[in-house]
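User: Modeling request: complex.
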Amino acid sequence: MSGWPEWLSPVQEGNVRDAAVAVLSPDAQHVGVAWRDAGGTLSLLHLAFHYDLRNDTPPSKRYYAVSPSLEPERLAQVAAMCERVLKRQRRGIPYGFRYDATAFSRDGRLVLGNEERGLTCATFVLALYRSVGVELLRVAEWPDDRPDDEARWTALLEVLRSGCPDAEHVSAVAREVRSRRFRPEEVAGGSSRPAPSPFVQAVAAANELVAALDGVR
Amino acid sequence: MPFGQSLVRSQRGAAEKKPWKDLPSLEGVVETEFLRPIHLGETVVAHRALAPRLGVIPRDADAILNANDADIDQYPGMAEWWRTANQMWEANSVKKKSADDVTETVKMSLTERLDYHRELSAQFPIPDIRVVYGKSGMHLAAARVVDHRAVIDHTLYWAAARSSEEAWYLCAILNAAATTQATRPLMSRGKEERHIDTYVWQLPIPEYDDHDETHRRLSELGKEAESVAAAMEVGPGESFVTLRRRLRALFAEHPVGRSIERIVAPMLPPPMLESVYAKVSDGASRAALTEIYDALDERLLDGELDAAGWILDAVEVSRLDVTTALGFLSVTLAARDRLPARRDLVDRVAEWLRAKDPARVASLLEGLTP
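Assistant: Request completed. Predicted assembly structure:
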């Protein structure tokens, strides 16, 4: 396959050792973590939407895994944390745009940062890695003024508004539409680079990733 | 011949129960040889015996004196005090109802009560050096007592030490948070489960051996801890409960306290560690990792930072592999500011990695250091 990144492969047995960021093809608009439990079973943990945390076993064949630029022993920690989050986060995770200090606490529960309301699929992955000491991206470098980001936030907000009965939550998230957006393809692409990936490198990797997945349509 | 006399008055407290709380204080002039320092639970905190209370103990050089014995008349002050006390005891001591509803007095004299189970007479002759610790409470608090006149109240357990070195060694072990944690699973369920009691002696605490370098080190640390505790100021009216809590917090961070934990925790390790080591040895590293995450997760979820610290202090890094060593650091990352044991473990893992895999130390520990 011409131009196919060597760090990208279908989420299948053999392609994921302990954990990897997994991105949904073909448009790379959703991301999660492919991980193995202690028995070796491969699953995909992802935040589908508001209070909708899913663990798909086996993962859909539409997901592609990014070989992360991390020591394998660190990836085992990500897998163990996936297991822990599943045990502790039964109620799910709220959906929200702004991401800065949110992380999983020492007890596996989500602790939202100041004025942060929840996570997206992409920031869920960032928070999960952060909880074991891995910052995948240099988050401070992300711009908060990309016009298409605000448009995407607005579209997602409408989906949230139609499905979330908590009007207060929706209003709070509505105030976050100018937050910096960590795109799923940037999180996935950035995870192929030495952590934490600078914005420029993550975007370059994201472009490679999108182009590759576009070819599998 | 009696020498010296002193005016004494019974000390009153808010914890008195009926009928005693309604009785007047006992006051009298007693020969000073019957006045002894008394250590109670409230005069013992970790590594420090506070100022003892003063008590009237009806014992001369040979034996406990009975109020009805003629011997006591050699000491008129003591005789009057003790007989008055006995009268008050007879008039107010516990009564029980018999089957036909006739009230009977329980037949235990005040002297018998005072020496119940020989708790008083067994203290004589008083050893020069003793270690005492409180019976009640969820945390052990032990101290060295060097006072050949002091009597130990029934709220404390005591043991004679052959030397101060042995006493410091025992105090170092008994006051370690690891010892309290190791004792918890042994404590009985039900209403007594909150008390350390004698369960601590079910632990494999080795007898002091001054040929053992580790024992000598613990003894030195116990001595240093005694100085640290002695230097802590006690506020006016500060309760022993508050003081014990302050000392626990102090030693949790203090280099002396940390050094003690680092020695005692591996002596009394949490059972889960053997299971982890066995899995690592069998090549089941990922399963061991899940066990580490689950064990520490449960403790942290319950706010049991001491228990989590006990695990981290007890870890023998050389029996782990890289994945599991990083597991202990990763799962506790979010609690790093509240786990002094984790800071020590980071240093130990780093040192181990520098010897084992120097090229990868930085990438393995990135984001996991304090």
